[in-house]
Amino acid sequence: MMLLLLTLIFLVETVSAFEFDNVKMYDKETKTITIVNAFGLGEDLEKAKLINNTYNCEQSCSAYKEITLFKDGVLIQDLNFYRLFTDGSRELSEPKRYTLKYYIDFGDTFYIDKETLKNGTIVQETQTIFRGEDFYWVTYELGTEVKAGTYQVRLEGTKKVNRIYDWIITLQGRELTEWATWGNISLGDDGEVLLISPEDNITKLIDDPISYNATANITGGDTLTNVSLYDDSSGTWKLNETITIPSSSGGDVGEAAIDRAAAYGPDLTLLNIGNPASTNFTCTEANIWVIGTAINVKVGSFFGSGDTWENRDSAALGAISTGSLVTVTGLSIEFQVGDVIGMFDTAGGSNLEADVSGGSNIRYLAGDQFGTGEQGSYILLGSDLESLNCSAVASSSTFTAQNFSKNVLRETTWNVQACDSSGTCGFATSNRTVRVLPQINVFSPTNSTFTTSTIFFNATNSSSSVDTWIVNYNGTNVTLSDINTTLEVEDGNKFNLK
User: Fold this and answer.
1) How many CB atoms lie within 10 A of CB 22?
2) Closest C-alpha among 229, 206, 291 to residue 462
3) Quick one: 191-247+396-436 is in which CATH superfamily?
4) What's the CA dihedral at 432, 232, 238, 51 to 10 degrees?
5) Residue 293 in 3-state DSSP?
């Protein structure tokens, strides 16, 4: 029994000294991670600092680190890549290719004579002198043991433009998850996330209400799907809240605006019933081709059937001078399934281009019928298509997040992530921080007269930890590391704590 007990103790001590008792500490201000051995009374094992990282890389990415190993051993145990997805999930997945290198001194290697054999042959051996002058970038094989010292480490990779990767290295049995990712939709012309408010380093009190506000804009055909607030208000960096962007179907109504064989108008309300709306949507862009100058132009949606139609929504475009395609943007005209598009311009104006081909796609009624209620006498023209079209993209590509309403819990670093319809996500290019003002409660001394110069000072700060207290009396500052202490002071009546 005694032998068994001693053996178990030996095994436990061996595993403990290896890595399970190692503790990771992170300084987010300097991006420095320190691994210490808790059972070794806080002995530092390894320290790693992120020097720079290409957060916004499209294809070519890199990260530079400085790693200090305090004893001979393995510099980097493992390296993993995780691909990040729009729903917050991740999967173990490597980029197209990557390299991990470190900057080491190869030294100056030369041959020296070791001995001379009887037959006259000279036996030589190599000798290397390290002068700190022969450094090269060399591929680091995971698990390779090196001498104690500080090493520059470079990670480089190539990925697809629309992918985001979280790269994580392992030191002393601890994954370094606090650092950075590769890839962001906040790039170039394809998308950007901009933090609007609050400003960086704004100061607040604990429990103050605060609203995090950002805009996201996507171009190039993709649309926004969600916007998320990330912060470290809980003590660790993580997702706080996600706003899903409601999708709205795109739509198209009417016919292509081209130079056609004939024209109709003016002073007519013309409806093109040949290509009604197939979905509910809001028209944001109208295309028109008229002859001459169209005056008091109105474009809108109409619902009904046969010769009975009523205006649903419209926009006044003013005068249009054309003879070629005119595109009007920034509109907001509601169309529902089955609605048709209509146009009106006043007498003395122009004519809307149309085809005359014996079709049955155009109806008209004299005068301005926009906003007049139901009209049941639209006349069918023996012609086909008008050069009038209204359309909208499938979903919003711009979103302003105004409802991340929170309360200040502690000093907080925050950012906003946006995800688009192609599955690409990204943050604003830099984080912001909300600082917390100290809330000092003084317990001693109170507003009273003391008969001794030895005064006990005691106070608390409920908002955050305190590194230094300053006692000010009669214009004299005294710095204290601990406020729970006594202090010899001079006579006076003006005391302040900060």
Assistant:
1) 21
2) 206
3) SOR catalytic domain (2.60.40.730)
4) 60
5) strand
Q: In which residue are the tokens 């214009």 written?
A: 475
Cβ distance 157 to 6 under 8 Å?
A: no
- The token duo for 469 is 């207290």
Instruction: Give yes or no for a cis peptide into 445 (omega within 30° of 0).
Output: yes
Residue 341 confidence (pLDDT): 92
- Cα separations (Å) of 289 from 255, 271, 353, 382, 387? 11, 15, 6, 20, 6
Largest CA distance in the chain: 124
Q: Phi, psi at residue 489, to the nearest 5°?
A: -125, 160
3-class secondary-structure state, position 205: coil
Q: What pLDDT, on a 0 to 100 scale, did the predictor assign at position 234?
A: 86
The pLDDT value given to residue 495: 56
* 68 vs 49: CA distance, rounded Å: 9
Residue 221: the pLDDT is 55
Domain spans of the chain? 20-182, 191-247+396-436, 251-392, 440-497
At a CB cut-off of 8 Å and minimum separation 6, what does 330 contact?
284
Q: Say if residue 208 is exposed, middle or buried (CB neighbours under 10 Å; 0-12, 13-18, 19+).
A: middle
Q: Is 474 helix (H, G, I), strand (E, B) or coil?
A: coil
Cα–Cα distance measured from residue 362 to residue 274, given in angstroms and rounded to the nearest whole number: 7
Give Cβ neighbours of residue 106 (< 8 Å, ≥ 6 apart): 128, 134, 135, 136, 138
Beta-carbon contacts of residue 215 (< 8 Å; ≥ 6 apart): 193, 194, 196, 398, 399, 400, 401
426: nearest Cα among 169, 227, 236: 227
Q: What residue ranges of the chain have pLDDT lower than 50?
A: 1-18, 186-189, 394-396, 400, 402
Show Cβ contacts of residue 166 under 8 Å, excluding neighbours closer than 6 positions.
81, 82, 84, 90, 177, 181, 182
| 205 Cβ contact list (under 8 Å, min separation 6) | 408, 436, 437, 439, 463
| Cis check: omega of the bond before 438, within 30 degrees of 0 | no
Amino acid at 281: F
Tokens of 122: 């000279």
Q: Please give the structure tokens belonging to residue 357.
A: 């081909």
